[in-house]
Amino acid sequence: MGLAINDFASLALDLTSGVSAQDRFDRLLTTVRTLLDCDASALLVFRGDQFTPLAINGLATEVLGRRFVVAEHPRLEAIARAGDVVRFPADSDLPDPYDGLIPSHDDTLKVHACVGLPLVANQRLIGALTIDDFNPRQFDRFSDADLRTVSALAAASLNNALLMEKLEQLSGQLGVSLPGADGPPHQSGEIIGQSPAMLALKREIEVVAKTDLTALVLGQTGTGKELVAEAIHGASLRAGKPLIYLNCAALPESVAESELFGHVKGAFTGAISHRQGKFELADGGTLFLDEVGELSLGLQAKLLRVLQYGDLQRVGSDKAIKVDVRIIAATNRDLRQEVLDKRFRADLYHRLSVFPLQVPPLEQRGDDLLLLAGFFLERWRSKLGLSSLRLDEASRRLLMGAAWPGNVRELEHCLHRATVLARAESPTAEVVIHPRHLDRGPTTDPQAGVPAPVSLPGADPGLGFRQATEQFQQRLIRQTLEANGGNWAASARDLGLDTGNLHRLAKRLGMK
Fold this sequence. Notes:
This protein is α/β, with parallel strands linked by helices. It contains 17 helices and 15 strands. The strands form four sheets. It has a six-stranded antiparallel β-sheet, with helices on both faces. Strands 8-9-12-7-13 form a five-stranded parallel β-sheet. β5 (113-121) and β6 form a beta hairpin. α1 (5-16) runs antiparallel to α2, α1 runs parallel beside α4 and α2 runs antiparallel to α4. It is globular. It starts with a helix and ends with a helix.
């Protein structure tokens, strides 16, 4: 027995009701799961070379954070290439990207019935609808014609949402607004998160990106302030021009002015040629001043002049150079307090904080932690060539109950280390992370409800603070190098460090 006309009518009504795109997607999957009586379903949008989940039903929350590169997932590649309904045999040896990620079942079970529906609009692939079940014959009673109708309705809903998204972007460039326009959530600059705090931040990013206002990104260390700057630039009219990054905290006082404004030959010892500064390199684009609160008062005054008048002088030159640069600054300091304490100029603070954005700490983002975990695990799975990499349920509870003073960066490093440890124990390419691999520091046991003993992950007990810290750094660097095949540049990116700083740290730790 297949689907009746009333079933299709119900699905169509759900997709045309006056709700947001996200609500429509959620209703779509709820209706599909009810009509087809399946264990799980997912709606994915196709962008570039990857599928990104927009909505899920019956799958672990972390799936929403994963980015499925088509070439690395044979089943999704088959769906993308098919152009029609794809029924995978129950004994197919193609790995399923959702194996172990249906939390209502024993995570040792594997999906046996899998149907993929490519979503096509104007003869172009825009997404996919996947339907999974543990019963290998679950979808036998539904004809291909039934499934094509479901696919067509889903494709129409997704295409409408994508068109609205494009209209919103166009309206922003034209300086007008479209009331009620509501496209699917897209991850600007790969900002992962669907919590209320992150959705509010994304709306603020969209608003300020359409202007040329100076933005000040505030937030604790490790929250992702650089990603916010990238998202603002990427959605702005300057997106085709350079985004230049400068870490103010890493600037030695002796070269800071030259880094910002450039110098002429002979301006000082070692100035053997003319050199452009960051402002000139960013001309027409955006200059991101990270940790701007670390600038000296003298340099703050010179920066203020450029912001006020739009011109600069290279060190050693009397010639003024006009520049057109948008400034995005970031800091983890309380600049208002810094102004009161006379460590930061009040006039520069007001220049920078025209449009402040607060990036929430991880502890305020709820289930976003699991989305981020899924994003990072998919990255490590790809880099290590694993067929699957996931958390068990106890690990999910442990992560959700832990304290994360280092925020997203700490979570990323914790999962990277856990991946290396779990892979070393696994006899196959299907790797599962258990709580023992998540050697957390100060945290709370979600089952016992009491604080766990304080320890530094990877350090031997009984060491002093400095020795324990250095030992942990050595082990983390070694593990990261191993995961990246000895590539120092890739390891630096994974650790969130500048490559030169990583080399210097390794030398100080006696590793080079």
